[in-house]
Amino acid sequence: MAIYVDIKKKMGDFELKVKFEAGHETLALLGDSGCGKSMTLRCIAGIMTPDEGVIRINDHLVFDSEKKINIRPQDRHVGFLFQNYALFPNMTVLENIMVGLERQGKQSKAYRAEEAGKYVEALHLSGLEDHYPSQLSGGQQQRTALARILASKPEILLLDEPFSALDAALRWEMEQVVRNTIKEFDGSTLLVSHNRDEVYRLSDKVAVYLNGHIDAFDEKWKLFADPHTAAAARLTGCKNISKAHVEGRKIVADEWGIAFDLPREGFWQAIGLRAHDFRLCQEGAPYSFAYEVTDRIEDTFSYIISIRPQGVVDSPVIRWELDKAEGVKVPDQGFCCVSKEKVMLLTQ
Amino acid sequence: MQQIWDIAKSFDWSPFWISLKTGIVATIICFFLGLWAARQVLRCGPKTRAFVDSILTLPMVLAPTVSGFFLLLLFSLRRPLGAWLYESFNIKVVQTWLGCIIAASVIAFPLMYRNARAAFEQVDPDLVYAARTLGMSETKLFWRVVMPAAGPGVASATVLTFARALGEYGATSMLAGNIAGKTGTISQRIANVIKDGDYLTAGVWVIIMMIMALIIMVAINLISGGKSHRQNRW
């Protein structure tokens, strides 16, 4: 395995306790802020020290509390992309990238400049070599940070919320740069993010973080189709989640006051329905209920319609999203349903 | 006018040079000691830090004469350390220029240490972490990453330290005394001539001191504000 992590760290009331491994692939750590994702990356990089546990990068044991091994960050060979890029403000783009060549030991300045030049070209920074970070746009800063990391020939890439500091237009452009970088990189990549779309597009596997532990871990398409837990459902973007219980051959969504046939046996505690999965249907269709519209919000390319089961006054609103053309056709009252495989059965 | 001209002709400039030399040497000592202490204190845990920090700042909050008293206790030839220094190395601190330097260094040190610490604390820790993950050695990253980032703060700390060392009076008068041409600094000179009622000479020295202070303050402002790219005014 390219990366193996099994660590514990306590900080005040917060406890991080995670265990996972990944091969030469991209693993996304998905979770709310403050749930320990960044902390995990920092422990792997050696910037933070776990209280106990083991960290292995490509069969190099870099941390083992029992064997008292704690390799310093300089010798861990990780490429860490910081949220704010952490470019050295007193160095030019080229000099910043040359720092990445530091580990190669003493080399002539000319050689290092030439080496760094390769990365300047690869990340389309030509012409900006002599600029200082403060003179660069957010995207150019991130390219420089990426070039600097790649120049250090890392064994693993750690990307900490790589797009959070960029505005929407640059975000997409930089996502493609990062995507290509990951694709060409020979090793594992850990991507920390709270954006499910980013995670879905960039990663192979997803670990869902919840309050310092991993709540769900799976291939991304499996996890998005069946998130296992209520927290994972919410983080993968499911807008409608209700506490639920199984009653005979039915599952009852307590908060919505509706019941469906039980699609699968199991000890389910919650049910999730994605906002895009609802359809209009006839009365009595399977997995359907009578709804009434409480609000309609016109979004850029869609309608967001708030509904609740008819007669259940205290039900939290259910969010239904559909194309504009479809949205105008939704009557104020009617019947809607989801298909059987789209009913997400969850545990807490 | 004639009076001032007469004074200028027969003027004894030695206090100026003594103060300047003392200031420069004390600043160099404080610069390195202060940076080192600031770095070490930032590495400590919160409790040790609070304690060590208090000790190191003490000379700034105590009356300089109190510091002078302790320095005398330490370096007096009748005391173990003072006697040992004199007997083993023939080093005399009391009533010598060395005393001037030590007194000025002790009094000015907290300014360097505290301001350097504040400057270090302002450095984005991610810069240091980034340098480490990229393989930069600790010494290299201190001089190439931390110092440039903390540069303006450290520079203004140095200038402030110099200013303080230049004008030191209380501890210096106790440890080094006021020997004309040897340990007689400007501040001591002013106090001395005032005692004799010579307000004119005192006035000349006061003007010199004020000009130096002004130059120093302008220098600090240029260092700390000149490099910022911000042009916000209100």
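The two ends of chain A are 30 Å apart (CA to CA).
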